[in-house]
Amino acid sequence: MNNSEIAAALTKMLTLRWSPVAVKLLKPGEKIPEKVTQPSVPLRHCQAITLARRGNSLYMPPSRHACPDGAAIMGLIPMSPKLRSGELYLLFKKLPTIECAQKMIASRQEFEAGTYAATVLAPLEDAAFEPDVVIFTIYPEQMMWLMCAASYSTGERHNFHTSGYNSTCADLTVQVMKTKQMNISFGCYGARAISDISDFEAYVSVPFQQLPTLACALEKLSAKSIPEARRKIYMPPVIDKVACAEPLAGNAVDVRIDSERCTGCGLCEAFCPEAVITMMTVDGQPKASATVPEKCCACYTCAGQCPQKAIQLTLR
Ligand code: SF4
Ligand code: SF4
């Protein structure tokens, strides 16, 4: 898959609002990729990401970087003494003591000054270069599916290294390039103050090399899990009036299966975690029957999975 195909697949499967943003750090002397232009004004790295997710392809040498912190963290320029010491974080009242500021600075990932000469950014679908990382600006539900896709073939959980400081430069770019691990960020003071990221959005950054594997896993998840979850198929019909005056004795669920509708596909028996449902033969036809209703925990899995809408749960 090329960049454009991967971007199209991810956008469709995750229903992305914004283009994923391809980010590459250029080494000194490295050729500038095609189709990128310098912005007319200096921008912060988080602002450049905003412009790229809105369709712009940018070449950003140090003179185009408006944030001295971000440019230094990404190894484009030396860090100024005031930023290195942490005193500016105290002035902004983002941290209480110089010790806290220095600890925060020491624990983030940075590249040494001069390691890189420029940043290039583009919507993934337009990127005429191989990015180091791809940054998604997305909703929590979409983040969840990216996490599922990243675990899909291994079952592994994820550990993230993030903070409320230096979001797009340290946590989404340098951290991911150095560790080659996906990372998340909720944005930082700068990114929230100067870009269009909404209160309901956050970021995920993925090493570019892992993107095809993620896209494959998302395709598998799109076959069943994603559409089912988005249709809320396990949500009981009435979930906002569940309080009752007296504690119920024992199990209080009736599992009713409409034998006229039931086609005997067996999905309910297969998916029921409590083995409540058994397939029977009625007049030579397979039919589902709730043979052990007292074990029903009211999870609604059977009702959600039944393609015939043949199962009704009644809470007594
Ligand atoms: S899932 Fe529905 S149609 Fe299939 S066996 Fe169960 S009740 Fe019948
Ligand atoms: S609601 Fe859950 S436990 Fe009860 S019968 Fe359906 S799948 Fe089984």
UniProtKB/TrEMBL annotation:
Stored PROSITE patterns: 4FE4S_FER_1, 4FE4S_FER_2
Coiled-coil features, chain-numbered ranges: none
Domain (4Fe-4S ferredoxin-type): residue spans on this chain: 253-282, 287-316
Keywords assigned: Iron, Iron-sulfur, Metal-binding
Classification via InterPro entries: 4Fe4S_Fe-S-bd (IPR017896), 4Fe4S_Fe_S_CS (IPR017900), DUF169 (IPR003748)
Iron as UniProt keyword: yes
Protein name: 4Fe-4S ferredoxin-type domain-containing protein
Organism: Sporomusa acidovorans (strain ATCC 49682 / DSM 3132 / Mol)
